[in-house]
Specification:
With about 625 residues, the protein is of the alpha+beta class. Helix content is about 55%, strand content about 15%. It has helices spanning about 10-15, 25-35, 40-80, 85-100, 130, 140-150, 165-175, 210-270, 275-285, 310-325, 355-395, 405-410, 430-445, 465-480, 500-515, 530-535, 540-560, 565-570, 575-585, 590-600, 610-625, and strands at about 105-110, 115-125, 135, 150-155, 180-190, 190-200, 290-295, 300-305, 325-330, 330-340, 340-350, 420-430, 450-455, 455-460, 485-495, 520-525. The strands form three sheets. A six-stranded antiparallel β-sheet has the order 3-2-1-6-5-4, with helices on both faces. Strand 5 and strand 6 (about 190-200) form a beta hairpin. The longest helix is centred in the middle third of the chain and has 63 residues, at about 210-270.
């Protein structure tokens, strides 16, 4: 027992309670010696001191262990809520520095592509060169740990020859001022993925407890990195799956959209729709404006404003036919189709923005549908042309055999042979196939018949104006063929038996136009004056006289004048005014006045050679008809 006031065990308990430093535990012993405490008491006091110090050490180790466990627990908690790998790794490196009490801590990771390690996270470093450092396998302490997968510690880095020193590595370590370094591997299964290191700028040893602690933190860091990798791969896989699903959905929708568009366009053709209907369907599906062109680049249908198309568009059409795909040129999409090398149709689409491949395929399908519609119509036209051509041939060659049968056949084609029709014979030098196609369509539109022969098209068209029909046929067929067309016409005809004579007259009229140097024109026999009398089957003298002398005869009848007689005498006297006056027993001035009246009624060119010839011939015919 110790006396009251003498230092004893309760002093050491008080020191333990307030967590005094180790040096303070010498105080009670020093005070006892100073007080002259007996040797036995001093020995007991020394024993109590040592026991107190052991207890102090145990308590400090437990406190430190609690701190370490708390740090590991916090690290595990961070991992469970992993959102940012960088933040977790920075927290681990920071805790390693704090728990080991070092000035610096850092973490390196393996670069599989380059086969070395690089600085991933640092804490407490000051050198940018050190933070950019890369270490090859086996080089430096970190490279050695990465290569051997076992912890290494050095109290003096530059004096340690267990690892390979490199000039760049040593320079960076020296610039950072590191001396003592401890490194432990980051392992996932048996694979080293990096190194966790703690370092001081002064020489110091590292205890086994410190190595174990850093190893535990390294294990957590490895778990964080592996979890982040797995999470990244999972997210990437989910992103790829989502992208694939989106693409698949988009592709499915595009395919369905294309199929619906194709079905709608095909249905239109089957229901008898035209090019305008197909063009409307295309623009409803694709949007924009559309122009449909035939083989000669003439518009078949238009929806909206496409703008002008020129040589560049036609080049794009040729390229489209060559590739079998849509071609983009100057903001236009061009899809063109040919059969056997012959262009059939071209679709030109103008639409804002990028046009996906699926929409381009829809445009190509629309071009194919348009081509099928053209071929279908061509086939129908060719079949109808054959039927109509055979009928008109029979009207020309066998009308007298069975006229009622011809009437019935014509009625089935929508033609009434008992109504007025004109016959047109058009001579040309263009494509027979194109001329036949044009003639067939004209016959169908004009409720008539058409036949095609080499160099000639024959039409029986509803109407009673052969001259007008001839001129229209010459102009329209010339525009279709791109070459001169000369058309003669006759009629009107009112029965099957009248068709053949009218056809032969129309042919002679066309040939007469060519003989007269009027190639490329159209006319009827009645419009050719006296030439019409020569070529016309009807020899319609009355019409010729009415056309030529009608104005004079009508004037004489109304006024009681003698203009016809005066003009006849003028021609009989060779155009001599004096002799004409003598023959009529009138004054020369009277003859001049009458001829002035003739000029006002017939035109100032009445005395020109070609008019004079017609008038003279008409006067002779008039004289023959009126002579007793």
């Amino acid at each position: 027992m110790t006396d009251a006031g003498e230092p004893g065990a309760h002093d050491f308990l008080e020191l333990l309670e307030r967590e005094a430093s180790e040096i303070e535990f010498e105080g009670p012993v020093l005070r006892a010696r100073a007080a002259g405490m007996p040797a036995a008491a001093l020995e007991r006091l020394e024993l109590a001191k040592r026991t107190a110090l052991r207890v102090r050490g145990t308590l400090r180790r437990r406190a430190r262990r609690e701190t370490e466990l708390s740090a590991l627990f916090d690290t595990a908690r961070d991992l469970s809520a992993l959102h940012d790998l960088d933040a977790v790794l920075e927290a681990i490196v920071r805790r390693a520095r704090q728990l080991l009490g070092t000035e610096v801590a850092y973490l390196t990771l393996l670069d599989p592509e380059r086969g070395d390690t690089y600085m991933r996270v640092t804490d407490g470093t000051v050198s940018a060169r050190f933070r950019r450092l890369r270490l090859s396998m086996g080089a430096g302490l970190a490279g050695l740990v990465a290569q051997t997968a076992v912890p290494y510690a050095t109290g003096d880095y530059f004096a340690d020859d267990r690892f390979r020193h490199g000039a760049e590595i040593d320079a960076a370590v020296r610039e950072e001022g590191l001396i003592a370094i401890l490194g432990v591997p980051l392992r996932v299964a048996s694979q080293v993925i990096g190194v966790l290191l703690a370092a001081d700028r002064a020489a110091r040893p590292f205890t086994q407890e410190e190595i174990a602690l850093l190893g535990s933190l390294a294990a957590h860091a490895a778990i964080a990195i592996e979890n982040a990798r797995l999470l990244q791969e999972t997210r990437a896989a989910l992103d790829e799956l989502s992208t694939a699903n989106t693409l698949l959905r988009s592709h499915s929708e595009a395919v369905e959209r294309a199929a619906v568009a194709h079905d709608r366009m095909t249905g239109l053709v089957l229901r008898g729709g035209g090019f305008d209907d197909v063009a409307t369907e295309v623009t409803e599906v694709l949007g924009g404006s559309l122009l449909v062109l035939d083989s000669a680049h003439r518009p078949l249908a238009t929806v909206g404003e496409v703008g002008e198309v020129g040589p560049e568009t036609f080049d794009a059409a040729r390229m489209s036919r060559l590739l079998g795909r849509t071609v983009q040129r100057d903001g236009l999409l061009v899809a063109s189709v040919d059969v056997g090398g012959e262009p059939l149709c071209t679709l030109v689409l103008r639409r804002e923005g990028e046009v996906p491949d699926t929409d381009q395929r829809i445009l190509e399908r629309a071009a194919l549908v348009t081509a099928l519609l053209l071929l279908f119509r061509r086939s129908v036209a060719e079949a109808e042309d054959r039927v109509r051509g055979e009928l008109i041939d029979d009207l020309i060659n066998r009308a007298a055999e069975n006229p009622e049968s011809l009437r019935d056949r014509a009625r089935r084609l929508g033609v009434d042979l008992d109504t007025p029709h004109v016959v047109v014979a058009a001579r040309h030098t263009g494509s027979r196939e194109r001329a036949a196609f044009w003639a067939s369509s004209q016959a169908a539109l004009g409720r008539g018949l058409a036949a095609s022969r080499p160099g000639e098209v024959v039409l029986l068209l509803e109407g009673d104006a052969p001259g007008e029909a001839a001129r229209r046929v010459a102009a329209d067929l010339r525009a279709s063929l791109g070459s001169e067309v000369t058309a003669g016409a006759a009629g009107p005809v009112h029965a099957p038996a009248e068709v053949a004579p009218a056809y032969h007259e129309a042919r002679r009229c066309a040939r007469a136009l060519e003989s007269l140097g009027r190639t490329g024109h159209g006319a009827s026999a009645a419009e050719l004056g006296f030439m019409g009398l020569l070529i016309g089957d009807g020899r319609d003298v009355e019409t010729f006289l009415r056309t030529t002398l009608g104005p004079l005869a009508d004037y004489d009848a109304r006024r009681g004048t003698a203009l016809v007689r005066t003009l006849s005498a003028y021609f009989d006297q060779g155009g001599n005014l004096g002799k004409t006056a003598q023959a009529l027993h009138i004054h020369v001035n009277t003859v001049s006045q009458r001829l002035d009246r003739v000029a006002s009624l017939l035109g100032a060119d009445w005395h020109h050679p070609h008019r004079a010839l017609e008038l003279h011939l008409a006067l002779r015919l008039h004289h023959l008809r009126t002579s007793p």
